[in-house]
Design brief:
736 residues; mainly beta; Methylamine Dehydrogenase, Chain H; five-stranded mixed β-sheet; globular
């Protein structure tokens, strides 16, 4: 094969809008970072949730079920929620890209940008930590700037709107606050709204003139003054509580909760009963105990809930005496008052906390994994992120906050689908996503964080392999299951050649009949190590990198029509270009088949059928040149590779197993800038000559990470997202 790259630069290349795909969300429920919560003052069972990568959720039955409403968002990170005091239709959301407003109860959203700094292309121009409405004049809205979770993005800025968010202006006079100050919380005095307090890593600051001038208000606080959250008593506004962040290795421990009875001018510690552990110096602050989230009873200023923010105090505390003493009110385990649903290994730290203004004994808390509710003031708690059935299976509730690496429908068992997640490993469904079962038994601890890929045996429906590892560290293992994914045996026996690295793009193939042992051949990419193969079902492994830039290999694909033909993709580094390599001897030897001029810079995924190859690439800089990325097509025997779609954030690609002209790709945007929702799924029925968008409002998360074509219905797609779990949908005739 001789390939020359004929790149088409510029726009999206004949992409037509609209979609007739009715996407259905499927998933196990929960799983991700619950970032914000709000119990409605207009309905006792109405409850709102915001998360870090999945957007906004509304429940009207107290969290038993949720609906995802992301229409209008330009990013999916919802840090703060605020509700109009008299109009239940009006909500505000503070996101990393600014403030959004809904006038239909959160079902659709409008971006409010007038007066904010110009939109940043690859950064956040004004990440909003807190949105607050003036209780006496709800058309007056404040937005405080900061990223409390990562403790960055501070600007020492507060924006104000006096027309319900239509326009904004900064109100902090120059020199009043440090220009890089991160604001993690803001509260107004309901009787005198011009009196304001803010929490920052440098202490509490107060304003008496509506935020134009500020003075430190940290009398009585520890010297480090790492304040996090403020909670003002609705019935006694002079009573204010503040939480402080601790740090690993600090002596003495200086975190916990402080109380003020004079509107924030002076503070006294209220830490009796809180976990007080500093952890070891040099370790993560998550290994030090400190409280972050606070909620005060609407009528009783002495009744307060506090959420432990770290792994060491991952619980909810309660005080009935104004903080003189605290008691844990959440305890997991056999004799505890809270029972974890399917998600047991992730998400303990309390990330948000709210109580119902209508029924104050109803309290919700969210973690980096799940949501819980109590209706008896903390005596008992119920999970509100999934539904468990009598048969032991689980079903999603609509609170789908997970991110996926892969969705793998079984090639011979209709409705059996395996889902490989970030953070929570592997789950399987036997009914097309209606219910799930979890089978991670046998996967080694420390290697079960994520499931990257799944491969199926060709002669046994219950026989499969999966690649596990950690998304945050390059460690991993291939494991084998012979009972449909219920239990697993890792294949990393001593000296068998399997490296300890994240496993990508696992492929299984039954050898030819002249092999007397009939052992399966396995091939995969070990991140940073290249291609590895096994000819004996995983008993032994060896590197298969002859001709490859092993350390840069990013993906692997087998030609759907040719068992011995494989393609490997590699990304560029420095001045070394990426590209695509081909093997005609089952990964024995490789030769480059894409041009060496760096246009295929950061290769993400590959799909091949009958000698035709599609690959997605990301925009990347190689040497002094920038290459925008997109979808490339290479045809066996043709004179050129063609760039058939241009987009710097192309991610997944899949080809219809019945028609090489039908190809699908996904657009997974860079997650750290103002407009980062992604473009969803695109489809071509003519080999990439023209494209049609398959994204619509039923695809609530357009950050699509993976695509699979259903083996029984080629018109059905399975896609995984970076925030709303998985979706399935049937592609209409026009889009195909």
């Amino acid at each position: 094969m001789k390939f020359v790259c004929a790149a088409v630069m510029g726009g999206a290349m004949t992409l037509s809008a609209g979609s007739d795909v009715a996407w259905k969300n499927v998933g196990p429920g929960g799983g991700g970072w619950i970032q914000s919560m709000l119990a409605s003052r207009h309905g006792s069972e109405t409850f709102f949730v915001g998360c870090d990568v999945g957007g906004f959720y509304r429940s009207d039955d107290g969290g038993r079920s949720y609906a995802i409403h992301n229409a209008g968002f330009e990013d999916y990170y919802v840090e703060s929620l605020a509700e109009h005091p008299t109009d239940p239709k009006i909500l505000y959301a503070g996101c990393r890209s600014g403030v959004y407003k809904s006038e239909d109860g959160g079902r659709t959203w409008r971006w409010l940008r007038e007066g904010f700094p110009r939109v940043a292309e690859y950064a956040y121009s004004a990440p909003v930590a807190k949105v607050v409405l003036d209780p006496q004049n709800p058309a007056t809205v404040y937005a405080a700037i900061g990223q409390p979770r990562e403790e960055r993005g501070g600007q020492g800025a507060i924006f104000k709107s006096e027309d319900g968010g239509a326009s904004w202006r900064p109100i902090v006079r120059p020199g009043q606050l440090a220009p890089d100050l991160l604001i993690s919380d803001l509260t107004l005095d309901p009787k005198e709204p011009r009196r304001m307090l803010i929490a920052t890593p440098r202490g509490v600051f107060a304003s008496g003139d509506g935020g134009e001038t500020w003075t430190p208000s940290s009398d009585g606080l520890p010297s480090h003054r790492r304040t996090r959250r403020l909670a003002r008593s609705p019935s006694h506004p002079q009573v204010v509580y503040v939480s402080l962040k601790g740090a690993a290795g600090e002596t003495p421990w200086q975190a916990g909760v402080y109380r003020s009875d004079d509107g924030g001018r002076t503070w006294r510690p209220r830490v009796n009963g809180l976990r007080q552990a500093a952890g070891q110096a040099g370790t993560s602050d998550m290994l030090c105990s400190w409280v972050s989230e606070l909620a005060v009873h609407p009528q009783n200023p002495d009744l307060v809930y506090a959420g432990g923010a770290t792994w060491w105090d991952a619980t909810v505390y309660k005080t009935a005496d104004g903080g003189q003493s605290w008691a844990r009110v959440v305890a997991f385990g056999e004799n505890g008052n809270a029972r974890k649903a399917w998600l047991t290994m992730w998400g303990p730290s309390v990330t948000c906390l709210t109580l119902s203004p209508l029924h104050p004994d109803t309290v919700y808390f969210g973690t980096s994994g799940y949501v819980y509710r109590t209706d008896d003031g903390g005596a008992t708690w119920q999970p509100r992120y999934t539904r468990e059935r009598d048969d032991g299976k689980i079903a999603g509730s609509g609170l789908e906050v997970t991110c996926l690496h892969t969705v793998a429908p079984h090639p011979r068992v209709r409705g059996r689908v395996f889902f490989g997640f970030y953070d929570i490993g592997l789950l399987a469904s036997d009914d097309a996503g209606a219910t799930f079962r979890r089978g991670m038994q046998g996967v080694p601890k420390g290697r079960d964080n994520s499931c990257f890929c799944v491969a199926f045996a060709e002669d046994d429906d219950a026989h499969l392999w999966a690649g596990f590892g950690e998304w945050g560290a390059n460690r991993g293992v291939v494991a084998e299951s012979r009972d449909g994914g219920a239990t697993w045996v890792p294949l990393d026996t001593a000296g068998n050649g399997l490296p300890d690295a994240r496993v990508r793009c696992l492929i299984s193939r039954l050898p030819l009949k002249d092999n007397p042992k009939r052992k399966h051949s396995l091939f995969y990419v070990a991140e940073g190590r290249g291609v590895f193969g096994s000819a004996d079902g995983g008993a032994t492994w060896r590197a298969r990198n002859e001709g490859l830039p092993a350390g840069r290999v990013s993906c692997l694909a087998q030609d759907a029509d040719r068992a011995n033909v494989f393609y490997a993709g590699a990304s560029s580094t420095g001045d070394e270009p990426g590209g695509v390599w081909r093997s005609d001897d089952s990964c024995g030897t490789w030769r480059r088949v894409s041009p060496a001029d760096a246009r295929l810079a950061e290769v993400r995924r590959l799909a091949a059928k009958g000698g035709r190859v599609y690959t997605t690439t990301r925009g990347a800089r190689v040497g002094n040149a920038y290459f925008p990325g997109g979808v490339f097509r290479g045809d066996e025997g043709a004179a050129a590779w063609r760039q058939v779609y241009t987009n710097r954030f192309c991610e997944a690609v899949a080809v219809d197993p019945t028609d090489a002209d039908r190809v699908y790709a996904s657009l997974h945007d860079h997650p750290y800038h103002d407009r980062s929702t992604g473009g969803g799924v695109i489809a071509s029925a003519d080999g990439g000559a023209t494209w049609r968008s398959l994204a619509n409002e039923t695809l609530t998360c357009r950050a699509v990470t993976c695509i699979s074509v259903d083996p029984f219905e080629p018109e059905r797609l399975w896609v995984g997202t970076g925030g709303n779990a998985a979706f399935t949908g049937v592609v209409g005739r026009e889009a195909r």
